[in-house]
Design brief:
Layout lengths: L2 H21 L1 H5 L3 H13 L3 H11 L4 H24 L13 H25 L6
């Protein structure tokens, strides 16, 4: 996918997530329990899209090598994150470290930000090949 397509898709998805977060599932769905659960689940599952939008903005004006190195990582990480979030349980009985959808989404997004930053810095600071 091109830079522009990833930027637009992630931007629109991020705008949708911020809309859900701003208004809230209860106000959007007006007490329809099925709608509230579906919208909340959608919000949690697509939470990793927000860092994709931020990093696509960062890499948009960078060299192609930097963008492609980051995009290869993102193409693998985002579906894996969404799969892990999908497989995580809704509720946990472990009081010490509850592994639920929210914590999986948070740590998945946090790791994405850290690894993406390292990849971008590494590629951006790498010496350019002499032609």
């Amino acid at each position: 996918m091109s830079k522009k397509i990833i930027l637009w898709i992630s931007g629109i998805a991020t705008l949708g997530l911020f809309t859900i977060g701003t208004f809230g599932t209860y106000q959007i769905c007006s007490s329809n329990e099925n709608c509230i659960n579906t919208l909340h689940s959608f919000f949690i599952h697509f939470l990793p899209i927000i860092p994709v939008f931020v990093f696509s903005l960062i890499t948009y004006k960078m060299r192609e090598e930097t963008y492609h190195a980051w995009a290869r990582f993102a193409y693998a990480w985002i579906p894996l994150s969404m799969l892990l979030i999908l497989l995580a349980p809704e509720y946990s009985s472990d009081w010490m470290f509850p592994v639920v959808k929210g914590t999986v989404a948070f740590f998945s997004s946090l790791l994405f930000v850290i690894i993406s930053s390292l990849i971008i810095l590494w590629k951006h600071l790498a010496p350019r090949p002499v032609e």
